[in-house]
Amino acid sequence: MKNKKIKVPGKFSRREFLLSTTLASAGLVSFGCKKNNFFGPEKEASGNENNYLPDIAGMTVKGTVQCNGVGVPGVVVSDGVLVTTTDARGIYYLPSSKTKGFVFISVPGRYEVATVNTILPVFYQAFKAEPSVVETMNFTLTKADNDKHVVLAIGDMHLANRNNDISQFQKGFLPDAGETISRYRQLGYKVYGLTLGDMTWDSYWYTNQYSFAQYLSVMKNINIPVFHTMGNHDNNPYVAADWAAEADFRASLGPTYYSFNLGKVHYIVLDNVEYVNNGGAEGKVGERNYNKVIAADQIAWLKKDLATITDKNTPVILAMHIHLNSNPSASETASLNLTNAADLIDCFSGFSNVNVLTGHTHICYAYENSSSLMEHNSGAVCATWWWTGKNGYAGNQVCKDGAPGGYAIWKFNNTDYQWLYKAIGYDESYQFRAYDLNQVHITAADYAPAATDALLYSYAGAYATKNTGNEILVNVWGYDKRWKVELFENGTTPLAVTRVKEKDPLHIISYEALRLNAGATPTADFCTTASAHLFKARASGTASPVLIKVTDRFGNVYTEMMTRPKALTVYMK
Fold it and tell me: What are the residues whose beta carbons fall under 8 Å from the beta carbon of 167, sequence distance 6 or more?
């Protein structure tokens, strides 16, 4: 096909015009004056006028980003490899090899995009033609005052149509999140969702016929824009290759890594799961094994994305599924967990305000890698894979570290922000649980009558022996080193408090004991995990009341006057 002759307005020759557009696409010049505006002096870039966008040699993708028919300048556009920005007229060009499947924009602050299925933001478009064919990809924005916004960080839903999970999700998480969304909207916040991976469960994609379509059919009821993160269980278990195993995710939810902006905050989503899945083949679920690494092409893209941020004090939120750091010790030490974690951290050199949101572990912890970068590993919506709330079990939602099943709430007002972990079914003020260890004696007779003490012993650990030390144990799931935990006997006498890394007794009686009681062996990955957000103090008496006062880093105070003795039950708060 012959190229159409292009009439170039103004006094520029065709050669000069094409050179100027090439330089503009490279970010070296921009179309800002009418003299070189190829839409003509009275026209703006709009979807109806994309025929006026000429092809440029080597540029395989072109388009505009508009709001109300007017081009939006400075919008970051990427194909997952290259990163460019729109010029003064909202125009971009990319010499894309189309290897990553999409062109996507980093939605700018104070704008939104349309959603599909009530929750999926349309910030991306899939390539439809071969790499040599030029494609036009236009994007439309709407203005949104989201300097004041809330993000619900939603980790590890593991929906699979088992363990009454759909019912638990619909009766627990959805109404709780709905109340949270309504409350913050009334306070003037725009509200968004950000998953932290494992929305589905690869083991049950085929046996239970439950994958992304079914997930979206229930998740859409949250009715807010939700950005998605790739988890290890969101891969096709029949496919033994990372890129191909992600195909269903891409087809249903979009790119596996990208960025966007809400108000004055820059968000980045990465895929740090390299799915291996030894033995996987059509009709056969593989081992579902994986590597914990961020691929080199993502690191290269991340550097380019971050280079578009000129103010290094901009708050940056990085979301990925697998945790950056190991579960910390009581002395606040941890090791890096990803193969190339150091390379990732180096990408943020010079940035002063980076928070990393992760899931995967089904426990809560916070760890500061430096004064400028902090990880927040969030508890799971499904808690212990929906086991503790399953019909006939404990009737609660408890994660492996004793934290309630829940999600994180991040509140932003311009560049000021706070966060907290929200327990499903409880008020935001529910930030700890306290135990009277004199009453924590885990026996088969009390908690697993169909089992034996011999079977229960290895799971109960220290709690298999009766405690007479008048100790109080406090589990503060949102704790970080800037929190303060205080205990006062009789409400006034301060007690010495020691941070410990131990197991939570409620989880033991809610999962291990009840699995044994059902004649099953507890799954090792689901068993209680020792965590360092627990604290001990010793009272002088067996029945004296103890005031527990917990102050978070933002100055919010949470209290309980513990009346002793306080029994250990699956329903305790």
Answer: none
